[in-house]
Amino acid sequence: MGTRIVIVGGVAGGATAAARARRLSEKADITLIERGPYVSFANCGLPYYVSGAIAKRSKLLLQTPEGFDSRYAVKVLVDTEALEIDRAGKRLKVAGPGGESWIEYDRLILAQGGNPVMPPLPGADSPNVFKLWTVPDVDRIKAYIESAAPASALIAGGGFIGLEMAEAFRERGLATTVVELMPRIMSTMDPEFGAMIAAKLEEKGVRVITGLGLKAIHPKEGKAELSDGSMVDAALVLLSIGVRPELALAKMAGLAIGQSGGLEVDEELRTSDPAIYAAGDMIELVHKVSGRKVRVPLAGPANRQGRIAASNALGLHMKYRGALGTSVFKAFDGVAASTGLGEKAARDAGFDAGAAIIYKDNHAGYYPGGKELVLKLVYDRKSSRLLGAQAFGGEGVEKRIDVLATALHGQMTVDDLAELDLSYAPPFSSANDPVNLAAFIAQNDISGYSPIETAAGLKAALAAAAGGGKPALVLDVRNLGEYEAGHVAGARNIPLDELRFRLGELPRDVRIHLHCRSGFRSHLGLRILKENGFEDVVNVTGAYMAILAEGGFTLE
Fold first, then answer.
1. Which of residues 447, 465, 487 is at a domain's end?
2. Structural domain of residue 223, as residue ranges?
3. Which of 283, 313, 343 finishes a domain?
4. According to the model, what pLDDT value does residue 1 have?
5. Containing H/E element for 391?
6. Which residue numbers are catalytic?
7. 67: Cβ contacts below 8 Å, ≥ 6 apart
8. 129-155 in b/e burial notation, b at 16+ Cβ within 10 A?
9. Are residues 457 and 442 in the same domain?
């Protein structure tokens, strides 16, 4: 008899592990156990089924128990829960439609994922309150919308699922509000990107409330009460405030839990029991940039982990070297994506983190139809190594982030990025792609040729100056009309084309912080000042657009 492999969890990592195991061995005896009624479904597609972008429910079901049996000869037990692992006896206790039983294994693979956090709020058990994690969850939401015809929806949580569902509810005609306890939505990205995403949602009619939590749900009134006592229309409520790894079975079995709160595994995805492997959202892994142990609950890593876990369970020795956390999501006609470390995470990991921001059309400016995208590189000033990247815009955002994820995997520097030979034609890019241009900015910063600071850095400098610290002058080199339309309070305006002739108006004993709209004109202005003997000058990367996204400035 071949190796007996039992897999707990039938979505993403678990389903991938089952298929991989069969491809490796026709003799293996493979059993896949799933607590719910479906296996191998597209949980990332659930919001798009609610919106109507995916019209057919059947498209969400990538494989069925019957399909697994006929194609892979895998025995699938649905509506079956794993209750106990007998590590000494190498058997798993399960409870299914036929009652409780034990299943013997040679190798066990845990791929149980996580569970949405459901806080014990007053009213949280009401019939108009939902979570979104499984096919039955999405069925309940759709049925409620179609039967009750709610006019409003409140989403608690501003992460991936919450924001994707905000779009879905708006597409269904519901007045939608997103409530996020953190100061900004999409907290996995740097704050300015949260602001950009919020602006896009509000442009499309979604109300965004940050810095407040959900206190209670009042279903009879169709309202929800926030932590400040205010009331919000909420005929339908979606709780999307986070996901916890499913670790009850592993803890009961005495398997080691890692420092990040996920199940501990080695580089071959073996747990503290050599006969038990694990994959997916429940495990902790190594972040490829920081080297720290983290949890990365994303579908891509889960599928790759499932493949490796199954391979090693059958005697191979494939290594899983970690993840970058690369992600992308759609916000109406906007796209947000990121990879690697953000600024704060990079500093927390001990890097001397710099950040370069560029606002640039996704293709050549003279070719019609260009859409502006924002690209931010985070890098180590000491080694020039790329540490992370984030972007927001429309078409072409995910292309740049995928390039930069590849660069991170290869441990490339900003000098390498500056030399990348990327494809170019006017409908697709510029001769120097935004990736190249952002790298140029980082190079100029590291070399001292054109030092930069972030909008947050400018805000801190102004606060320090106001408190009696080092004096600071904000020099706005935009045209007079741009300046008068809105500017940082106290900023001096000298348009770039007049700067050479008005140098005498500028002091030489204070730090001069230059900005324009997006950063290029102020870079030119900085070089003019440098060449004329001004030593303490710095360019605000991302310029006035970044200042607006950062927030917290006094504007006139």
1. 447
2. 129-241
3. 313
4. 74
5. strand 386-393
6. 44
7. none
8. bbbbbbbebbeebbebbeeeebebbbb
9. no
